[in-house]
Amino acid sequence: MKNLIIAVLFILPTFAIAQRGSERNAEIESYRIAYLTQKLDLSTEEARIFWPIYNDWQREQDLLRKERTKMISFRKITEIEALSDTEVQTLILNDFSFKQRELNLEKRYFLKLKSSLPIKIVGKYYRAQEAFKRELLAKYRANASPQRN
């Protein structure tokens, strides 16, 4: 119970950010936090270290996502033929650059977690993240499929 209270105290800033977004994003983030809290089973001290790092990471990821929505992405262009070769190449290279920034962010926070917590907890976090994605996808697929009688 103490772990849950501590997690909630550290999570409130993240939840406040999620509330500014859509209801769906807030619901997903709440679900993710509950899921991670259960799967990681952190001690009080580990939770005190983990959640601020996690919150900072989420804020930086949100900023990157917002930036990505504003940029002209190769993925958003429907008619390649209308662009010059240089424009196509620039769009592709910009996409690579953005992916590299995402990877750099991932590595930076991995190092923060690794330097602050036992590596097995860091491993549990990454495993829980992947399991969460699979579970969330399954949940939304189940909700999207037509109900059969």
From TrEMBL:
Top-level taxon of origin: Bacteria
Protein name: Sensor of ECF-type sigma factor
Taxonomic source organism: Pedobacter nyackensis
Source lineage: Bacteria, Pseudomonadati, Bacteroidota, Sphingobacteriia, Sphingobacteriales
